[in-house]
Each structure stands twice: as structure tokens, then as C-alpha cells.
Amino acid sequence: MTSAPTNNAGEKFLLPAGLGDGLPPEAGFEAAIVEHLLASFARWGYERVKPPLIEFEDSLLAGPGEAMAAHTFRLMDPVSQRMMGLRADMTPQVGRIAASRLQNAPRPLRLSYAGQVLRLKGEQMRPERQLGQVGVELIGAEGAAADAEVVLLAVEALTALGVPGLAVDLNVPRLAPSILQDLPPQRRADLIAALDRKDTAKVAELAGDQAKLLQGLLRAVGPVETALPVLESLALPSQGAEVRANLAAAIALIRKSAPDLTLTIDATDHRGFEYHSGIAFTFLGRGVRGEFGRGGRYVNHAGEAATGFSLYLDTLLNTLPMPAGPKRVFVPFGAEATAAIKLREEGWVTVQGLHAADPSAEAKRLHCSHFLQDGRPTATGN
Questions:
Q1: What is the per-residue pLDDT for 123?
Q2: Do 97 and 49 touch, CB atoms closer than 8 A?
Q3: Cα separation of 331 and 343, whole Å?
Q4: Residue 36 pLDDT exceeds 90
Q5: Cβ-count burial of 313 within 10 angstroms (0-12 exposed, 13-18 middle, 19+ buried)?
Q6: Over the chain, what is the mean pLDDT?
Q7: Sign, CA torsion 94/283/118/122
Q8: C-alpha distances in angstroms, 29 versus 5, 284, 345?
């Protein structure tokens, strides 16, 4: 018989920072969440793909994957002697699949995915380095209708899961860079960082002739009913005006299908949206630490317009209440197999005894609410 590990053994099996084991019942709950989300995506016509956990570095970090280079573990492939990377995000992989293996598939292409990603280090709000992602990509479609579709899909799937107080924060991460494109690179980077921090004094110090416009962007933050009019009043360059018009059109479409959804705008947030080229969005919950997911518009490896989102399983697990477990019944050693089969058909989880023992005591020890007696489940009692 295998004994439980001792304290010394536990020290031997210490895991690296940011990594952890998924244990019962959380691991089963996570699998159920993934199954629910993928089923929701499938009902919208999104078909699942399964990228590899590891790829050659030059493929993994091409196109939108370049933005994940600083987060990617690398190692040498002993077979090819080429550098490989462990994926830190699945969106670039799906973009590669669309641009290569599915390049001749009709557009728009609707793909879904689920899997684990690994990052070099965690973040302040998300210290875990291994994360579960579930998401979709809509590839080969431009315009507000595509942006609205993926937002509404995520909202429907998360609402069906029971996510409380769901809100969508709409971002335009390329807006500030389009205004600052003629500035020297370092000054532009410093200004974007100041905008991310909402540091009005630093923006005023660095912006020069653009100060009034950038301060207007800082005011375009909050509920869409107040932030969008502020944004529409600003004299933006042509590229920024185009993004703004698409944002307004997407908001109108989202409002038409989900009139009660909480929608906010942040016209200056750039963090985490490094490879996005248009509207981006973050899914939040009232009183919830961290975000449920994020996404937005980007350009894939073949230069195609695309939009999509990734949902984060850790936030969902920390937010959603654990459902009641299935009914468990202990089946004593030597019981007729047909009795256990019938119980499973009725929805019971059967735990099979492997040696002769007192059925009631074994049921309690193995966390079963019932034990099989005379062909039927009998409650163990207290």
C-alpha cells in the first residue's frame, strides 16, 4: 500500500513559484467550465483547433506573437538543434494556423481553443505563471459587426456560467500612438506610459502642442454614455478618427443586443494590448479581483484582419461558486456488477470497494454519502 507523503517528501516535491497542482474538486470544476465555454462558442459557429504546446521560436514569435517574446520560455530542440518556445499566449498560434494550415478555408474563419500557457513571470494582479485560456478568433472580417460579435459571444457565455456583475471595458490602444507617431521614440514611450497611469501632470509636461488633445483622451474614460461624447468631440488624426468611428458603431451594435450590459470606455489604456490594432476590450466583474479575459482586433501572420478574446480560467474559478458534487455511493467488494452499472445510469458516482470491509464505514472514509445495500443506495448517516 502506498502511504501519504511525509513532510520531508513534501519539501522534495516543492513546485516553482507561480506553478501549482490542480486538485479535486477544483480540477474537475475547471474542466466543466472549459466544456461549457467551448459548447457556447460552438453554438455560434466557432470550431475548435488544438495548437501544440511548443513551437519553433521563429514561428511562435512571428506576427502578433512578437509581442509575447519577453514572456516566452525558450529551449533548444535536441532533434533539429533549433530554438523552440513554450507558448505564452494562444492567440498568435491560432493566427498562424489560419494563415497556414487553413489559408484556403472560407472567410470569415471562426475558431475556438482551450489550453494552458506558460510565462516567464507572473504579474502583480496575476502571479501565476501557468494559466488556462479559453477563447475564440474571428479571422478575415473587418468592421464593427465582427468586433460586436466576439464581445456579445463572450458576454453570453460568461453570463450563462453565472458570472456576477459583468462589465465590458472598451479600449482603443492605438489611438494615443496614432496621435504621437511623429514624436521621438523615447518621448512617445514615456507619454504612452504616463497615459496608462493617468498621470495628467506628466502628460502635460511631455505633450507640448498635443497636451490639450491628450488631456481630452484622459477625460474619455468611464461609462459609454459620458465618455463617448467626450471622445467624439476631439479633433483626431485620420487614423484615430477611423478607430473612433468603428468604436461608436460597435457600441451601437452591442447596445442593440445587450441593452442592459455595463459598458465603459478607456481611451488611453495600452497595457496588455501591444499587438492590437483597433478596438480592444476587457471583461470585468463587480467586486472581482482581476479580469475574466481580454481581447481585441489585430492582424495575423498573413496580414488578415482578425479579432477575438481569451478568457482566464483562474479568475473564473476564484469567482464562481463550486457546484454541489454528484451523488457518491460506495459499492462493496463482491457486489453484483449490474447494480453498479444501473446506479451510474441513474447519475450516481460509484466508488468500488477493492477488499472486504464494513460498507458504511468505508463509505464515510471515502467521502461517499451512500453505500450499496440490498441492491439500493443507503445513506451513511452522521
A1: 79
A2: yes
A3: 10
A4: yes
A5: buried
A6: 91
A7: positive
A8: 25, 21, 21
Residues 6+ apart with CB under 8 A from 57: 72, 74, 82, 83, 84, 85
Amino acid residing at 217: L
Question: Residue 56 pLDDT more than 90?
Answer: yes
pLDDT for res 181:
83
What residue has cell string 516567464? 120
Q: What is the pLDDT of residues 208-222, one digit of tens each?
A: 888 888 888 889 999
Quote the pTM value. 0.90
User: Whose grid coordinates read 492590437?
Assistant: 276
CA distances (Å), origin 127, targets 87, 91, 118, 121: 17, 21, 12, 7
Q: Of 82-86, 215-219, 282-286, which gets the smallest average pLDDT?
A: 215-219
Residue-level pLDDT at 2 = 46
